[in-house]
Amino acid sequence: MVIGEPAFLMSRSAFSSVMGPGVAMAQTSIISRLAAVGLIVQSVMPAAAQEEVLSAQHAPPVINDETIGILRQHQVGSIILPQGSAPFPAVVVLHGCNGVSQNTRAWARRLASWGYAALIIDSFSARGLAQVCDGSRALPGPERAKDVFAAVAYLRSRSDIDASRLAVLGYSHGGWTALNASTEKNTEQAGVPPFRAVVALYPFCPIRVAPPLASDIQIFIGDADDWAKASNCKTFVDKYPENAPHRPSLVIYPGARHSFDAKRPERVYFGHELAYDPKAAADAIERTRKFLDEHMHP
After folding, report:
1. Global pTM?
2. N or C: which end of the chain has fewer CB within 10 A?
3. pLDDT single digits (tens) 203-222
4. Is 6 inside a domain boundary?
5. Measured between alpha carbons, how far is 27 from 11 in angstroms, rounded to an integer?
6. Element (H or E) spanning 194, and its range?
7. What kind and span of H or E run contains 268?
8. How far is the C-alpha of 93 from the C-alpha of 273, rounded, in Å?
9. Residues 30 and 173 reside in one and the same domain
10. Which residues span the domain enclosing 160?
11. Could you tell me if 194 and 215 are in contact, meaning their C-beta atoms sit under 8 angstroms apart?
């Protein structure tokens, strides 16, 4: 590759050896014309304008109360606000069994880019837990659901949040927690209105019970998940009649494994296979956005 030439063009000698001298000459002509166009643009654009463009490209960060968040010791959560005018609809984001991770923050940033305030709750640090992936059941989903309702109370106290438009999104252990926060019983006990929407990615679905639900639920899971079984989620959903209020919606992705939405290398974690599946992830992300938009902006 010749330095300074467009990356998609071969060197003249390499191109000639592959395509022949006639085509290589044509490529040389193209390169010359591109260079000429660049010189013309530079000569036409005033020096001040060129400096303004370069300045914009390398502008320093704006540092003020709007762009700086406060991190405190023993912090149990963080919130990302979207651009635009408050009050904002908000989504509580629930991490997996390994705690707040890159994937947790990726979902929060994604939600903010869609116009939602995203509140990440760290359910482990304050409890002195590093993870609950080892099957210890130190913090089961029904117990952790109390964190969700505490998060909702906090969101309702903020003037920049629309308390009538709140949702929950969780994955893995967080998805299990989200399902527990969506039941009529737990919602009534917490004394809060139902969530507008609940999204659960590869959750641990119950198979023996089908409690009355207070919110619409969207579940995503892969049929090759060896940790959270897709068959369990299908059994759970099938327990609800077709005309049941808030019957969960289930999408099963062929070949997808646990953590299919997390952009990390394929790995084995606590004896389970985790793998990123770009096709399944893209579909789940698009469906999540549509699901939230339909329920949060009726």
Report:
1. 0.79
2. C
3. 999 999 999 999 999 999 99
4. no
5. 9
6. none
7. strand 267-269
8. 24
9. no
10. 77-296
11. yes
Take residue 8 and report the two structure tokens written for it.
Answer: 């998609």
Residue in this structure with the two tokens 């969700």, named with its chain if needed: 148
User: Tokens for 201?
Assistant: 């990615």
Half-sphere exposure of 165 (CA within 13 A, CB side): 19
Please name the residue ranges forming H helices in 114-250.
141-156, 173-180, 184-190, 230-238
Pairwise CA distance, residues 161 & 81, whole Å = 9
- At 36-85, the pLDDT tens digits run 434 333 444 566 555 554 455 667 887 776 777 776 767 899 999 999 99
Contacts (Cβ under 8 Å, ≥6 apart) of 200 = 169, 170, 171, 175, 176, 178, 179, 217, 218, 219, 220
The letter for the amino acid at 90 is A
Cβ-in-10-Å burial (0-12, 13-18, 19+) of 251 comes to: middle
Establish if 276 belongs to a structural domain: yes
Question: What angle do helix axes 12-19 and 21-44 make, rounded to 10 degrees?
Answer: 140
Question: Distance between CA atoms of 89 and 164, rounded to whole angstroms?
Answer: 8
